[in-house]
Amino acid sequence: MFKPVDILMVGVGGQGTILASRVLAGAAREAGYDIKVSEIHGMAQRGGSVVTQVRLGEKVYSPLITRGGADIILAFEKLEALRHLPFLKPGGTVIINDQEISPVPVLAGTAVYPAGIIDYIRSVAKNVVVVKALDMALKCGSAKAANIVLLGILAKKLPIKKELWEQALAGRVRAGLLEVNQAAFASGYEIG
User: CA of 19: how far to CAs of 24, 28, 37, 145, in Å?
Assistant: First the structure.
């Protein structure tokens, strides 16, 4: 019997949110979970918000996570974590990449990037993991692997064998980039 888990993955275009959700889906499927995924990435190419809802369990009927229904929010950028916090279930976990990517209104000077985001999230959420995934990815060889660092942290929190994650990663990342991504996954998994 599989305990259902609802995971909200949030970031901005170009951060690899979609790839991370596909690796998660592949690993969960190999572990025997029924899985449903919903992707929302309208203006993603222009740095807009990207949201992927991943639901897994014994039998999943809908891909949508309701407000207050996410067991885990995996945030690739901290403003996106704040924006999607209402979806977190009481007692849920927020994994946050401590990185600022200014949205268009901030870049245009019509808004200010909010201060104190991490402190606020810690004040309202019970389980918060903050990581400098970009720095960790750079140590592994590429800034673009920050998404896989975060995925490694998530992997440690789910009852899916590490080998299944590694197989799913190998099946979805080009051979030339695989070694860097494997190192990024391992670094995230180690601190997860």
Answer: 9, 14, 12, 11
Q: What is the Cα–Cα distance from 84 to 178, expressed in whole angstroms?
A: 31
Residue type for 9, please? M
Distance between CA 26 and CA 31 in Å, rounded? 9
Written as six digits, the tokens of 148 are 């896989």
pLDDT in tens, 19-64: 999 999 999 999 999 999 988 755 545 567 789 999 998 888 888 8
Measured distance CA(185)–CA(111) in Å, rounded: 35
Going across the sheet that includes 127-131, the strands are: 34-40, 49-57, 5-12, 70-75, 88-97, 127-131
Q: How many CA atoms lie within 13 A of 31 on its CB side?
A: 25
- Across the range 65-93, mean pLDDT stands at 96
Specify the 3-state DSSP secondary structure of 92: strand
Cα 81-82-85 angle, rounded to 5 deg: 80
What are the CA-CA distances from residue 157 to residues 5, 7, 45, 150 (Å)?
11, 11, 30, 11
Domains and CATH numbers, the chain: 5-191 (3.40.920.10)
